[in-house]
Design brief:
- The protein has helices at about 5-20, 20-35, 35-40, 60-65, 80-85, 120-130, and strands at about 1-5, 55-60, 75-80, 90-95, 100-110.
- It is an alpha+beta fold.
- α1 packs antiparallel against α2 (about 20-35).
- Helices cover about 45% and strands about 25% of the residues.
- The mean pLDDT is about 90.
- A 5-stranded mixed beta sheet has the order 1-5-4-3-2, with helices on both faces.
Amino acid sequence: MIRIHNDATGDLRAIMARAPGDAAKLVALIQQLKADPKLLSGMNEAVFGGNRIGPIGVKPWRTMRNQTGQKPVFRLRAWDLEAAGLHYRLLYLYNWPDQSLNILAVVAKRDFDYDAPNDPVRQRVYACIQREFPGA
């Protein structure tokens, strides 16, 4: 099951305000992820869709995992969006207790630094994980 956190919904609304076409494609991607069991199961793999095989690429967000005590935090990108010049990332956490995938942020890669401790998106995601997913 995929859940979209309120913060990610806010991200999508902000994208909609500045780039409605991008937002529509991101919403369609999320709907595709929800509807496709193969993609859904791949979202919890350490590496899925590498070498641009399949519609998405998934990797662990290692620096966030290290910061959260190895909680299962991932980043996802869609290869077809990348090919069209849309470089967005879905940042999400797998919550073991209820076995849900929780999209916590939707960001343009150019506006985000995975490793910078002071990046506002990184700080927001970390605070959300600590506050809402302590048992993940």
